[in-house]
Amino acid sequence: MKILNNISQFIVGIVFIFSGFVKAIDPLGSTYKFVDYFEAFGMEFFNSIAFPLAIILSSLEFIIGFSILFSIKKKYTSWLLLMFMAFFTVLTLILAIYNPVTDCGCFGDAIIMTNWQTFGKNIFLMIFTIILVINRNKFEVKWNNVKQWSYLFVAFSLIITLSVYYYNNLPLIDFRPYKVGTYIPEKMIVPENARKAEYETILKYQKNDEVKEFTLENLPDSTWEWVSTENILISKGDDPKIHDFTISTLIGNDITKIVLNDDKFTFLLVAYDLNKSNLKNIHEINELSTFVHESGKSNFICLTSSLESEINDFKEKTNASYSFFNTDEITLKTIIRSNPGIVLLKKGTIIGKWHHRNLPSTKEIVNEYLENPKYQNMTTDKEEVLALSEN
């Protein structure tokens, strides 16, 4: 029983610590996921508290995992763990049945799971949770009461600090398909070894007012008359990593290939909603835009999902002189966790990303990118892209 209890502590503790950590280093990602759920259930009035809920959830998961793994305040933590698991197991069952949002978000963008996979994961963890609750009085306590509270305070301070820091900066680890070093066109193609979607073909035939269903392996004789054919999805195939990246003019012309194939550097000012954009550093952004255009070595454009009227208001408010193009809001939120943020492309490869609070100086841009020999004759060779990512 002691071995089983230790195994349960380790599995539950590690899973909860990992889940809390990946959410804490990308608090905006968790915020967007809460908003997705609220809107799917018609609860948009809760959108304003999505960010604090994201902080609370990541902190709670991390603290529970930390406490379970190190046997801190075992009695209270075991019951808290049970209540947490009971609530989310029921919730994920509802999500699996109705599927309002396809990606559960339980491990942020680090591990993508379907709702049924998440429910199965919760059932698996519930087994170990029950073991821990039953044996809550048998945990080995290594520290006195003061030390236990001290360690909890340190863990809580750490996870809150991480959340606040990475809210004001880009995530520590970029798990999304738009990380630095990504050659976007390659990610827009389904790999050769990808799983193909599987369908079952059902054919309906009629004979003497009787309608029956048949499969391709069991077709009726010629005395039956075909009525209809239905293809039923048995298992979903793999999608390309990037399947929704498009750039269009304000009148709807698609310029995605033009941007991705440009030999020049292209600075993308990504602002999914101009009305919500932080304008604290807009002066530095305008200076960067002016420098880029005057240098003649690169382009500077803005990608947004805002309407033309909102774009015009933004131009008037900020004196923006660069061009604006439309891209899907969810895509922009995925590209960079900053509104606005800067992404640097060359020939379709992402070679730099910056939060609006941490924009590089023009000197840094010139030395590290515009005049850096490794970017002068870039190709789309896979090995070169990987090398850029590592650097």
Task: Explain what the structure shows.
This protein is an alpha/beta fold and 391 residues long. It has 3 domains: 2-167, no CATH class; 198-235, no CATH class; 256-390, Glutaredoxin. It contains 14 helices and 8 strands. The strands form 2 sheets. A 5-stranded mixed β-sheet has the order 6-5-4-7-8. A 3-stranded antiparallel β-sheet has the order 2-1-3, with no helix packed on it. α4 runs antiparallel to α5. The model is unreliable at 382-386 (pLDDT under 50).
Compact description:
With 391 residues, the protein is an alpha/beta fold.
List the helices and strands and how they pair.
Layout: H1 2-24, H2 27-40, H3 50-69, H4 74-98, H5 115-134, H6 145-167, H7 184-187, E1 198-207, E2 210-214, E3 225-235, H8 256-260, E4 265-271, H9 282-295, E5 298-304, H10 308-318, E6 323-326, H11 329-335, E7 341-346, E8 349-355, H12 362-370, H13 373-376, H14 382-390
Parallel strand pairs: 4-5, 5-6
Antiparallel strand pairs: 1-2, 1-3, 4-7, 7-8
Helix pairs in contact: 1-3, 1-5, 1-6, 2-3, 3-6, 4-5
